[in-house]
Specification:
This protein is an alpha/beta fold and 342 residues long. Helix content is 31%, strand content 24%. It is built from nine helices and 13 strands. β5 (66-69), α2 (73-84) and β6 form a beta-alpha-beta unit. Bound molecules: adenosine-2'-5'-diphosphate. Adenosine-2'-5'-diphosphate binds at residues 6-13, 33-35, 37-38, 55, 71-72, 75, 161-163.
Protein backbone atom coordinates (compact mmCIF):
# COMPACT_ATOMS: atom_id res chain seq x y z
CA UNK A 1 0.00 0.00 0.00
CA UNK A 2 1.06 3.55 -0.71
CA UNK A 3 0.04 5.54 2.33
CA UNK A 4 -0.23 9.28 3.03
CA UNK A 5 -0.77 10.93 6.40
CA UNK A 6 -2.16 14.45 6.47
CA UNK A 7 -1.52 16.15 9.81
CA UNK A 8 1.49 13.94 10.56
CA UNK A 9 2.90 16.27 13.23
CA UNK A 10 -0.31 16.28 15.30
CA UNK A 11 -1.36 14.08 18.21
CA UNK A 12 -3.43 11.77 15.98
CA UNK A 13 -0.94 11.96 13.09
CA UNK A 14 1.85 10.74 15.36
CA UNK A 15 -0.40 7.96 16.60
CA UNK A 16 -1.15 6.92 13.00
CA UNK A 17 2.58 6.27 12.62
CA UNK A 18 2.81 4.29 15.87
CA UNK A 19 -0.28 2.21 15.05
CA UNK A 20 0.85 1.53 11.46
CA UNK A 21 4.15 0.25 12.84
CA UNK A 22 2.52 -1.77 15.66
CA UNK A 23 0.03 -3.36 13.29
CA UNK A 24 2.75 -4.07 10.72
CA UNK A 25 0.59 -2.37 8.13
CA UNK A 26 1.89 -3.21 4.64
CA UNK A 27 3.49 0.07 3.47
CA UNK A 28 5.46 0.40 0.22
CA UNK A 29 5.66 4.19 0.14
CA UNK A 30 4.83 6.65 2.90
CA UNK A 31 4.22 10.38 2.45
CA UNK A 32 3.60 12.88 5.23
CA UNK A 33 1.81 16.22 4.89
CA UNK A 34 1.34 19.30 7.07
CA UNK A 35 0.98 23.06 6.99
CA UNK A 36 3.84 25.60 6.74
CA UNK A 37 4.45 24.98 10.44
CA UNK A 38 5.81 21.46 9.99
CA UNK A 39 6.60 21.31 6.23
CA UNK A 40 10.26 20.45 5.70
CA UNK A 41 10.69 18.87 9.12
CA UNK A 42 11.76 15.23 9.44
CA UNK A 43 9.61 12.62 11.16
CA UNK A 44 10.99 9.14 11.91
CA UNK A 45 9.13 5.97 10.99
CA UNK A 46 10.58 2.45 11.33
CA UNK A 47 14.17 3.63 11.39
CA UNK A 48 13.87 6.04 8.43
CA UNK A 49 13.26 9.79 8.36
CA UNK A 50 10.47 11.22 6.22
CA UNK A 51 10.22 14.87 5.23
CA UNK A 52 6.85 16.53 5.81
CA UNK A 53 5.45 17.94 2.55
CA UNK A 54 3.40 21.12 2.44
CA UNK A 55 -0.25 20.32 1.68
CA UNK A 56 -1.45 22.59 -1.12
CA UNK A 57 -3.79 22.68 -4.11
CA UNK A 58 -0.81 21.44 -6.16
CA UNK A 59 -0.02 18.41 -3.99
CA UNK A 60 0.00 15.28 -6.13
CA UNK A 61 -1.67 12.28 -4.52
CA UNK A 62 -1.48 10.06 -7.60
CA UNK A 63 -0.33 6.57 -6.63
CA UNK A 64 -1.54 6.98 -3.05
CA UNK A 65 -3.89 4.11 -2.05
CA UNK A 66 -4.94 5.29 1.39
CA UNK A 67 -4.72 8.76 2.93
CA UNK A 68 -5.26 9.05 6.66
CA UNK A 69 -6.26 12.63 7.39
CA UNK A 70 -6.39 14.38 10.76
CA UNK A 71 -5.76 18.08 10.25
CA UNK A 72 -9.12 19.59 11.21
CA UNK A 73 -12.44 19.82 9.35
CA UNK A 74 -11.48 22.95 7.41
CA UNK A 75 -8.35 21.34 5.97
CA UNK A 76 -10.26 18.15 5.09
CA UNK A 77 -12.96 20.12 3.25
CA UNK A 78 -10.46 22.29 1.44
CA UNK A 79 -8.23 19.45 0.22
CA UNK A 80 -10.60 16.45 -0.15
CA UNK A 81 -10.62 16.77 -3.95
CA UNK A 82 -6.84 17.16 -4.14
CA UNK A 83 -6.44 14.03 -1.99
CA UNK A 84 -9.04 11.77 -3.67
CA UNK A 85 -9.04 12.81 -7.33
CA UNK A 86 -6.50 10.18 -8.41
CA UNK A 87 -8.27 7.38 -6.53
CA UNK A 88 -6.83 7.54 -3.02
CA UNK A 89 -9.29 6.48 -0.33
CA UNK A 90 -9.38 9.25 2.26
CA UNK A 91 -10.07 7.98 5.79
CA UNK A 92 -10.89 11.23 7.49
CA UNK A 93 -10.68 11.75 11.23
CA UNK A 94 -12.32 15.19 11.14
CA UNK A 95 -16.03 15.95 11.39
CA UNK A 96 -16.09 17.47 7.87
CA UNK A 97 -18.04 14.74 6.06
CA UNK A 98 -19.26 12.39 8.77
CA UNK A 99 -22.95 13.10 8.34
CA UNK A 100 -22.90 13.41 4.53
CA UNK A 101 -25.18 10.76 2.98
CA UNK A 102 -22.54 9.74 0.42
CA UNK A 103 -19.79 9.27 3.02
CA UNK A 104 -19.87 6.07 5.12
CA UNK A 105 -19.08 6.43 8.82
CA UNK A 106 -17.39 3.29 10.01
CA UNK A 107 -16.46 1.42 13.18
CA UNK A 108 -15.14 -1.97 12.03
CA UNK A 109 -16.68 -3.85 14.98
CA UNK A 110 -20.11 -2.45 14.10
CA UNK A 111 -20.63 -1.62 10.39
CA UNK A 112 -17.53 -2.54 8.36
CA UNK A 113 -19.46 -3.27 5.11
CA UNK A 114 -20.49 0.38 4.92
CA UNK A 115 -16.89 1.13 3.89
CA UNK A 116 -17.48 -0.55 0.53
CA UNK A 117 -20.04 2.05 -0.58
CA UNK A 118 -17.98 5.27 -0.80
CA UNK A 119 -18.95 7.21 -3.93
CA UNK A 120 -16.61 10.10 -3.04
CA UNK A 121 -13.74 7.85 -1.97
CA UNK A 122 -14.08 9.32 1.52
CA UNK A 123 -14.73 7.27 4.65
CA UNK A 124 -15.52 9.07 7.89
CA UNK A 125 -13.78 8.07 11.11
CA UNK A 126 -16.37 8.83 13.80
CA UNK A 127 -16.01 11.09 16.80
CA UNK A 128 -13.89 9.48 19.55
CA UNK A 129 -16.66 9.43 22.17
CA UNK A 130 -19.05 7.78 19.70
CA UNK A 131 -16.55 5.11 18.61
CA UNK A 132 -15.93 3.74 22.09
CA UNK A 133 -19.62 3.89 22.99
CA UNK A 134 -20.90 2.02 19.91
CA UNK A 135 -18.36 -0.79 20.37
CA UNK A 136 -20.20 -1.49 23.67
CA UNK A 137 -23.71 -0.72 22.34
CA UNK A 138 -23.53 -3.13 19.40
CA UNK A 139 -23.62 -6.42 21.40
CA UNK A 140 -26.54 -5.06 23.46
CA UNK A 141 -28.43 -3.92 20.35
CA UNK A 142 -27.99 -7.42 18.88
CA UNK A 143 -29.73 -8.89 21.97
CA UNK A 144 -32.61 -6.40 21.94
CA UNK A 145 -32.91 -3.12 20.04
CA UNK A 146 -31.77 -0.11 22.02
CA UNK A 147 -34.35 2.64 22.35
CA UNK A 148 -32.44 5.26 24.31
CA UNK A 149 -28.97 6.02 25.60
CA UNK A 150 -28.06 8.50 28.29
CA UNK A 151 -24.37 9.18 28.65
CA UNK A 152 -22.04 11.44 30.62
CA UNK A 153 -18.53 11.65 29.19
CA UNK A 154 -15.25 12.34 30.94
CA UNK A 155 -13.05 13.47 28.05
CA UNK A 156 -9.27 13.70 28.15
CA UNK A 157 -7.19 16.66 26.99
CA UNK A 158 -5.95 14.66 23.99
CA UNK A 159 -9.26 15.24 22.20
CA UNK A 160 -8.23 18.88 21.78
CA UNK A 161 -4.87 17.99 20.17
CA UNK A 162 -1.18 17.86 21.02
CA UNK A 163 -0.94 21.53 22.08
CA UNK A 164 -3.84 21.08 24.50
CA UNK A 165 -2.15 18.08 26.15
CA UNK A 166 0.96 20.19 26.61
CA UNK A 167 -1.12 23.01 28.06
CA UNK A 168 -2.62 20.69 30.71
CA UNK A 169 0.85 19.46 31.69
CA UNK A 170 2.17 23.03 31.87
CA UNK A 171 -0.81 24.19 33.93
CA UNK A 172 0.00 21.65 36.66
CA UNK A 173 3.70 22.55 36.52
CA UNK A 174 2.91 26.28 36.76
CA UNK A 175 0.60 25.72 39.74
CA UNK A 176 3.34 23.72 41.53
CA UNK A 177 5.75 26.64 40.91
CA UNK A 178 3.16 29.01 42.42
CA UNK A 179 2.55 30.71 39.04
CA UNK A 180 -0.68 31.51 37.25
CA UNK A 181 -1.37 28.79 34.65
CA UNK A 182 -1.62 29.75 30.99
CA UNK A 183 -5.05 29.19 29.40
CA UNK A 184 -5.12 29.12 25.59
CA UNK A 185 -6.46 25.86 24.19
CA UNK A 186 -9.33 25.44 26.64
CA UNK A 187 -11.92 28.04 27.65
CA UNK A 188 -10.83 27.74 31.30
CA UNK A 189 -8.03 26.30 33.38
CA UNK A 190 -8.40 22.51 33.11
CA UNK A 191 -5.91 21.52 35.84
CA UNK A 192 -7.85 20.75 39.06
CA UNK A 193 -11.06 21.49 37.15
CA UNK A 194 -13.85 20.03 34.96
CA UNK A 195 -15.29 21.91 31.98
CA UNK A 196 -18.88 20.86 31.11
CA UNK A 197 -18.51 22.01 27.51
CA UNK A 198 -16.79 20.23 24.62
CA UNK A 199 -17.12 22.13 21.32
CA UNK A 200 -19.63 24.96 20.79
CA UNK A 201 -23.27 25.16 21.90
CA UNK A 202 -26.03 24.63 19.32
CA UNK A 203 -29.68 25.80 19.22
CA UNK A 204 -31.08 23.18 21.64
CA UNK A 205 -28.48 24.02 24.33
CA UNK A 206 -26.62 20.77 23.76
CA UNK A 207 -23.06 21.13 22.43
CA UNK A 208 -21.93 20.07 18.97
CA UNK A 209 -19.96 17.20 20.56
CA UNK A 210 -23.13 15.98 22.31
CA UNK A 211 -25.15 16.17 19.09
CA UNK A 212 -22.38 14.28 17.25
CA UNK A 213 -23.01 11.40 19.68
CA UNK A 214 -26.75 11.58 18.85
CA UNK A 215 -26.40 11.65 15.05
CA UNK A 216 -23.30 9.51 14.54
CA UNK A 217 -24.61 6.66 16.74
CA UNK A 218 -27.77 6.44 14.60
CA UNK A 219 -25.80 6.47 11.38
CA UNK A 220 -23.26 3.83 12.45
CA UNK A 221 -25.87 1.54 14.01
CA UNK A 222 -28.36 2.01 11.16
CA UNK A 223 -31.14 2.94 13.59
CA UNK A 224 -33.22 6.09 13.66
CA UNK A 225 -34.99 4.75 16.76
CA UNK A 226 -32.03 5.22 19.09
CA UNK A 227 -32.06 8.50 20.97
CA UNK A 228 -28.84 9.59 22.62
CA UNK A 229 -28.78 12.28 25.29
CA UNK A 230 -25.18 13.19 26.19
CA UNK A 231 -23.45 15.57 28.56
CA UNK A 232 -19.83 15.90 27.47
CA UNK A 233 -17.28 17.05 30.03
CA UNK A 234 -13.58 17.81 29.59
CA UNK A 235 -11.57 16.41 32.50
CA UNK A 236 -7.90 16.84 33.47
CA UNK A 237 -6.91 13.39 32.17
CA UNK A 238 -4.25 13.14 29.48
CA UNK A 239 -5.47 10.70 26.82
CA UNK A 240 -8.22 8.16 27.56
CA UNK A 241 -11.93 9.03 27.56
CA UNK A 242 -14.39 7.52 30.04
CA UNK A 243 -18.17 7.36 29.75
CA UNK A 244 -20.99 6.54 32.19
CA UNK A 245 -23.74 5.03 30.04
CA UNK A 246 -27.40 4.24 30.75
CA UNK A 247 -29.13 2.20 28.04
CA UNK A 248 -32.79 1.25 27.60
CA UNK A 249 -33.70 -1.74 25.41
CA UNK A 250 -37.02 -2.97 23.96
CA UNK A 251 -37.06 -6.06 26.19
CA UNK A 252 -35.57 -6.16 29.68
CA UNK A 253 -32.15 -7.87 29.53
CA UNK A 254 -30.52 -10.11 32.13
CA UNK A 255 -27.12 -8.90 33.28
CA UNK A 256 -25.71 -12.40 32.66
CA UNK A 257 -26.67 -12.32 28.96
CA UNK A 258 -25.25 -8.82 28.53
CA UNK A 259 -22.01 -9.83 30.22
CA UNK A 260 -21.73 -12.86 27.94
CA UNK A 261 -22.40 -10.69 24.87
CA UNK A 262 -19.78 -8.15 26.04
CA UNK A 263 -17.25 -10.97 26.54
CA UNK A 264 -17.77 -12.24 23.00
CA UNK A 265 -17.81 -8.79 21.36
CA UNK A 266 -14.84 -7.87 19.16
CA UNK A 267 -12.69 -5.00 20.39
CA UNK A 268 -14.25 -5.01 23.85
CA UNK A 269 -12.66 -6.22 27.11
CA UNK A 270 -14.72 -6.75 30.25
CA UNK A 271 -12.99 -5.48 33.38
CA UNK A 272 -15.67 -5.80 36.01
CA UNK A 273 -15.24 -7.28 39.46
CA UNK A 274 -16.63 -5.00 42.19
CA UNK A 275 -15.45 -7.36 44.97
CA UNK A 276 -11.85 -6.79 43.88
CA UNK A 277 -12.37 -3.09 43.05
CA UNK A 278 -11.81 -3.96 39.40
CA UNK A 279 -13.07 -1.53 36.77
CA UNK A 280 -11.38 0.27 33.89
CA UNK A 281 -9.80 3.67 34.56
CA UNK A 282 -8.29 6.12 32.08
CA UNK A 283 -4.93 6.13 33.86
CA UNK A 284 -4.10 2.50 33.13
CA UNK A 285 -6.01 2.14 29.86
CA UNK A 286 -4.17 4.99 28.08
CA UNK A 287 -2.19 3.60 25.15
CA UNK A 288 -4.20 0.34 25.00
CA UNK A 289 -6.01 -0.86 21.87
CA UNK A 290 -9.35 -2.25 23.16
CA UNK A 291 -12.37 -0.52 24.60
CA UNK A 292 -12.88 -1.56 28.23
CA UNK A 293 -16.22 -1.99 29.98
CA UNK A 294 -17.03 -2.39 33.67
CA UNK A 295 -19.53 -1.44 36.40
CA UNK A 296 -22.25 -3.39 34.54
CA UNK A 297 -25.53 -3.44 36.45
CA UNK A 298 -29.32 -3.17 36.16
CA UNK A 299 -30.53 0.41 36.19
CA UNK A 300 -32.67 0.59 39.36
CA UNK A 301 -34.59 3.55 37.94
CA UNK A 302 -35.71 1.71 34.77
CA UNK A 303 -36.97 -1.91 34.35
CA UNK A 304 -35.62 -2.04 30.80
CA UNK A 305 -32.42 -0.22 31.72
CA UNK A 306 -28.75 -1.13 32.14
CA UNK A 307 -25.84 0.94 33.29
CA UNK A 308 -22.12 0.53 32.65
CA UNK A 309 -18.81 2.38 32.38
CA UNK A 310 -16.65 2.47 29.24
CA UNK A 311 -13.00 3.54 28.90
CA UNK A 312 -11.04 3.84 25.66
CA UNK A 313 -7.85 5.53 24.55
CA UNK A 314 -9.01 8.58 22.64
CA UNK A 315 -6.02 8.77 20.29
CA UNK A 316 -5.95 5.00 19.63
CA UNK A 317 -9.40 3.39 19.23
CA UNK A 318 -10.97 6.86 19.36
CA UNK A 319 -8.99 8.00 16.32
CA UNK A 320 -5.87 6.44 14.74
CA UNK A 321 -6.47 2.76 15.49
CA UNK A 322 -10.06 2.84 14.24
CA UNK A 323 -8.92 4.48 10.98
CA UNK A 324 -6.15 1.91 10.49
CA UNK A 325 -8.61 -0.92 11.25
CA UNK A 326 -10.89 0.46 8.50
CA UNK A 327 -7.94 0.29 6.08
CA UNK A 328 -7.08 -3.26 7.24
CA UNK A 329 -10.69 -4.30 6.68
CA UNK A 330 -10.58 -2.84 3.15
CA UNK A 331 -7.36 -4.71 2.34
CA UNK A 332 -9.00 -7.97 3.46
CA UNK A 333 -12.45 -7.41 1.96
CA UNK A 334 -12.50 -4.79 -0.79
CA UNK A 335 -11.94 -6.34 -4.24
CA UNK A 336 -10.00 -3.21 -5.31
CA UNK A 337 -7.35 -3.77 -2.66
CA UNK A 338 -7.36 -7.57 -2.87
CA UNK A 339 -6.66 -7.20 -6.61
CA UNK A 340 -3.77 -4.82 -5.90
CA UNK A 341 -2.28 -7.32 -3.46
CA UNK A 342 -2.04 -10.02 -6.16
P1 LIG B 1 1.24 21.53 11.29
O1 LIG B 1 1.89 21.12 12.56
O2 LIG B 1 2.16 21.54 10.11
O3 LIG B 1 0.43 22.79 11.39
P2 LIG B 1 -3.38 18.55 16.54
O4 LIG B 1 -4.76 17.94 16.35
O5 LIG B 1 -2.54 17.73 17.45
O6 LIG B 1 -3.47 19.98 16.95
O7 LIG B 1 -2.66 18.51 15.08
C1 LIG B 1 -3.19 19.12 13.95
C2 LIG B 1 -2.46 18.64 12.72
O8 LIG B 1 -3.08 19.21 11.56
C3 LIG B 1 -1.00 19.06 12.66
O9 LIG B 1 -0.22 18.00 12.14
C4 LIG B 1 -1.01 20.21 11.65
O10 LIG B 1 0.19 20.34 10.94
C5 LIG B 1 -2.09 19.78 10.72
N1 LIG B 1 -2.65 20.92 9.97
C6 LIG B 1 -3.33 21.97 10.46
N2 LIG B 1 -3.68 22.82 9.45
C7 LIG B 1 -3.20 22.28 8.30
C8 LIG B 1 -3.22 22.67 6.92
N3 LIG B 1 -3.80 23.79 6.52
N4 LIG B 1 -2.61 21.86 6.03
C9 LIG B 1 -2.00 20.72 6.42
N5 LIG B 1 -1.95 20.29 7.71
C10 LIG B 1 -2.53 21.06 8.64
Amino acid sequence: MNVAIVGASGAVGQEFLRVLAEQEFPIDHLRLFGSERSAGSLIPFKGKEYEVELLSEDSDFSGVDIAFTSAGAGTSKKYADVITKHGAVMIDNSSAFRMDKDVPLVVPEVNPEDALDRPRNIIGNPNCTTIQMVVALKPIHDLSPITSVRVATYQAASGAGAAAMKELEEQYAAIVRGEKPKVEKFAYQLAYNLIPQVDVFVDNDYTKEEMKMFHETRKIMHSDDIRVSATCVRVPVMRAHSEAVWVETERPLEISEVREAFEKAPGLVVSDNPAEKEYPMPYDKAGQDPVYVGRLRKDISDDRGLSFWVVGDQIKKGAALNAVQIAQWLIANDPRFSAEKQ
